[in-house]
């Protein structure tokens, strides 16, 4: 699309959102050139790849390399180029993947002609890019996780079950904290019931096929031990950005058993909310509620959540903010979402200023506030399609007699 058409009818505010992408690329390129290795987690990915090549233990506690053996295997090609080049290529990859996912999301939501893409992307970027920037800068895998969540939602909406299943299985085999979105989508959509488990077993078997059964299996055992240690560390450290750690900041500790019980109860409630959305709304609306609830639960109840992980929340905040303006023309909702977004963006400084010595308690509270707001919108029957659009049942969901009668009328 020619630039003049892409920017047609965009306001200065929307152009600013688009400019943020260029600014992010410039700053990250300068960072890699002037301060190679600074504010980067790519070195830990390379460490895992090198340990895989050397056939030594991949893990050394809750720090360092903390991903699955498959991640280490897939990162080995980067060992053949310089670390600085790996830093740059990896960051460019995750940035453009995230940008592509936002464009796919806009196309899914908006029935407007392609020439309005600049308006939607510019408005979403005002919130999404500033919150995502630290993830871009650090090269974090959660940027990929966020993009994949969005892309899977778009693919399910288009009934592209095979590609959705491949992405779900692949990312789950790389980063098990993906499990919230993984379980919601896999259990709630019947066409994924068989596809995803088969593909997941295939991806999990790759380290044993390429590294030998004994070495590959032992690394999975080591991974489970490391993950348990990392989760225990997260539960008992108040500097992680999970909801239970907010209580620790203010001197209240909730026992491990109670935390597990609350998580299970709220996981069931989250599943029921998504099921309700599927039964109540059109396909697109139901999927976007699922994306939102999965994002909120993931961040609030993962004991290893950190402030930079809230790119996941920033994405759905940008979605709701833009839809409040362009789809619903609801200034109050846009203001509420905008204020929560500002809280996420400034969470580190707010946490440290309000409670000296802390860094991460504001973000989970923003997640909780947003969750309550979205639940309210769910029961107010807020949809992501124009009211004139006919209600379409979800794939493989039978049309009820009442729906048939309404369609005939």
From TrEMBL:
Record flagged with keyword Cytoplasm: no
Keyword flag Transferase: yes
Pfam families: GT87 (PF09594)
Domain of life of the source: Bacteria
Major localization listed first in the record, in broad terms: membrane
One MF term in the entry's GO annotations: hexosyltransferase activity
Assigned protein family: Belongs to the glycosyltransferase 87 family.
Protein name: DUF2029 domain-containing protein
Organism: Endozoicomonas montiporae
């Amino acid at each position: 699309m020619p630039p003049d058409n892409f920017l047609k009818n965009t306001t200065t505010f929307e152009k600013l959102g688009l400019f943020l992408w260029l600014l992010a690329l410039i700053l990250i390129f300068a960072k890699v050139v002037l301060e190679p290795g600074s504010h980067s987690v790519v070195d830990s990915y390379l460490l895992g790849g090198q340990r895989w090549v050397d056939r030594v233990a991949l893990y050394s506690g809750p720090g360092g390399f903390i991903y699955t053996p498959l991640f280490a295997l897939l990162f080995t090609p980067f060992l053949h180029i310089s670390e600085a080049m790996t830093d740059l290529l990896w960051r460019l990859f995750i940035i453009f993947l995230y940008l592509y996912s936002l464009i796919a999301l806009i196309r899914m939501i908006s029935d407007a002609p392609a020439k309005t893409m600049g308006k939607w992307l510019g408005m979403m970027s005002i919130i999404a890019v500033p919150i995502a920037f630290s993830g871009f800068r650090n090269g974090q895998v959660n940027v990929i996780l966020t993009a994949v969540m969005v892309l899977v939602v778009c693919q399910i909406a288009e009934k592209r079950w095979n590609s959705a299943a491949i992405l779900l299985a692949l990312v789950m085999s790389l980063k098990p904290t993906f499990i919230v979105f993984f379980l919601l989508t896999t259990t709630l959509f019947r066409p994924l019931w068989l596809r995803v488990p088969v593909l997941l077993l295939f991806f999990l078997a790759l380290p044993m096929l390429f590294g030998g059964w004994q070495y590959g299996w032992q690394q999975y055992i080591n991974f489970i031990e490391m993950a348990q240690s990392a989760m225990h560390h997260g539960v008992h450290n108040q500097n992680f950005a999970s909801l239970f750690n907010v209580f620790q900041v203010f001197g209240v500790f909730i026992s491990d058993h109670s935390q597990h019980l609350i998580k299970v109860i709220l996981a069931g409630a989250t599943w029921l909310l998504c099921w309700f959305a599927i039964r109540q709304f059109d396909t697109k609306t139901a999927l976007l509620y699922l994306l939102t609830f999965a994002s909120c639960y993931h961040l609030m109840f993962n004991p290893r959540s950190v402030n930079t992980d809230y790119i996941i929340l920033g994405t759905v905040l940008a979605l709701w903010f833009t839809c409040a303006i362009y789809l619903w023309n609801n200034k109050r909702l846009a203001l509420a979402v905008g204020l929560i977004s500002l809280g996420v963006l400034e969470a580190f400084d707010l946490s440290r200023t309000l409670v000296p010595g802390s860094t991460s308690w504001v973000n989970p509270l923003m997640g909780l506030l947003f969750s309550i707001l979205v639940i309210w919108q769910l029961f107010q029957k807020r949809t992501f399609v124009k009211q004139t659009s006919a209600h379409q049942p979800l794939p493989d969901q039978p049309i009820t007699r009442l729906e048939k009668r309404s369609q005939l009328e």
